[in-house]
Specification:
Blueprint (H helix, E strand, L loop, with lengths): L6 H13 L18 E10 L1 E6 L3 E5 L4 E5 L6 E6 L2 E4 L2 E3 L3 E6 L5 E3 L3 E3 L2 E6 L6 E8 H12 L6 H22 L7 E2 L15 H9 L3 E7 L2 E4 L4 E2 L28 H4 L2 H4 E2 L2 E4 H11 L9 E12 L3 E11 L4 E5 H8 L12 E4 L3 E5 L1 E2 L7 E2 H9 L4 H8 L4 E4 L2
Parallel strand pairs: 1-13, 16-25
Antiparallel strand pairs: 1-12, 2-5, 2-9, 3-4, 3-8, 5-6, 6-7, 8-11, 9-10, 11-12, 14-15, 14-26, 17-24, 18-23, 19-20, 20-21, 22-23
Helix pairs in contact: 2-3, 2-4, 3-4, 3-9, 3-10
Length: 410
């Protein structure tokens, strides 16, 4: 839906663009992606219902029979639910567990009142016959427009935004290739992969970063030649990025840690350092066992000890492996970042593993915290500072992913 912008509104948007995240009323067009370069984004895997709306004609595809139904633009939102082995859309029941909705003319669609996306929508009835898996099938460049705007403030320097776009494109293609073959989707729309917020997050500046780097990815020498790799990134590394082998198990040259003198220069102390996080032992035990059921044999987790750490200059120590001791006397081991996200799935309280863990009688303390995120690959605040100092996107990426090079896929 297009919105006419008055002179006053235009000025307001321009000011917002500069100081906040940009005017989202009329985002710049996105460069097209070649056939085959689409990505399936998991929006929800347990939806009881969704509401669908689009301002154009669209096709409804029964993927079991390949039957295609033509539909007019929606006058109002249409409710979509699971109905046994079928999908119910408004008053119509489609005899399929997998339904596709494809708007004409690349028209964005809206779900759940205010979530706007490019591409197509796929609905899958889950095994319980009550809930839905909701997937946005979207061209890679359009996907990136919704990622870059969500992962990095649009008012940051253009070269930092370009570096973010290339890293995000590389990461998305890597995850799709590595995991997408064995499931109905490629990436989640959350920080579990990359945050993706669709059209309403887009801004002119972030779309410029995507368009100006269209098709560019990072690659390194692997078995089949120079191939894209998991170009991870995090908010604040705290002074040294981490070797990916210690966090994700990826043992490749560009994902070895590097000293980062930059993020400290551009990060507020309140973000660079984080306050003590407290969790009672019952909560810690429940959260860990929910994610790792095999630890149930430990009983209540009484003690957490760092057994492996990365120590760097500047008083930076990152916990890479921990030992859990339970009330039954049994023990278990976890990677540091797996522990962090098991206890605090939001990652907003235990912001990194650059901290000290103290086991008390009834609770655990995570103290002297530094940095934000897993610390692997590009440090976003460091990238911003490098861009401030005049470094290009290529120089930023070369610094944080040593031994990599930029390759044009399309």
């Amino acid at each position: 839906m297009r919105t006419k912008i008055s002179g006053i509104s235009f000025i307001t948007c321009a000011v917002t663009l500069f100081f906040l995240t940009g005017c989202t009323v009329e985002p710049q067009k996105i460069e097209p992606s070649p056939p085959g370069y689409q990505i399936r984004v998991l929006l929800d895997d347990r939806a009881e219902k969704i509401f669908f709306e689009v301002d154009d004609e669209y096709e409804i595809i029964n993927w079991d029979t390949s039957e295609i139904s033509k539909a007019e633009q929606t006058v109002k939102e249409i409710e979509i639910t699971a109905n046994g082995n079928a999908v119910k859309m408004g008053q119509h029941r489609f005899e399929t567990r997998r339904l596709g909705l494809q708007p004409h003319n690349a028209q964005p669609f809206v779900i759940n009142h205010n979530q706007k996306y490019r591409g197509e929508l796929e609905i899958i009835v889950n095994a319980d016959n009550k809930t839905l898996t909701v997937i946005n099938i979207v061209p890679m460049e359009a996907y990136l427009a919704g990622v870059v705007a969500a992962e990095m403030p649009s008012y940051w320097e253009a070269e930092a935004l370009k570096a973010q776009a290339i890293a995000a494109r590389t990461y998305g293609l890597h995850i799709k290739s590595r995991f997408g073959k064995n499931r109905s989707w490629d990436v989640r729309a959350t920080q579990a992969n990359q945050v993706y917020k669709g059209v309403l997050a887009e801004t002119v500046r972030t779309n410029n970063a995507v368009n100006s780097t269209a098709g560019l990815v990072l690659c390194c020498e692997q078995g089949a030649g120079c191939e894209p790799f998991g170009a991870y990134y995090s908010s604040v590394c705290g002074g040294h990025t981490e070797n990916s082998e210690n966090v994700f198990g990826d043992k490749i040259e560009p994902l070895k840690g590097v000293e980062c003198p930059y993020c400290r220069e551009s990060t507020k102390p309140s973000l660079f350092y984080w306050p003590t996080a407290k969790f009672d032992k019952k909560t810690v035990t429940k959260n860990i066992i929910d994610r790792y059921p095999s630890f149930k044999e430990l009983g209540t987790i009484d003690k957490i000890e760092a057994v492996r750490e990365s120590k760097y200059d500047g008083n930076l120590t990152r916990i890479t492996s921990v030992k859990l001791t339970g009330s039954t006397g049994k023990t278990g081991f976890l990677r540091g970042d797996d522990l962090r996200l098991a206890i605090d799935s939001s990652g907003t309280k235990i912001q990194s593993t650059c901290c000290t863990i103290i086991s008390l009688k009834d609770e655990f303390l995570f103290v002297a915290g530094k940095g934000f995120g897993h610390g692997v690959g590009l440090c976003q605040y460091g990238a911003r500072e490098m861009a401030r100092q005049g470094k290009t996107a290529e120089q930023i990426l070369s610094f944080y992913y040593p031994g990599s090079r930029i390759k044009n896929l399309y």
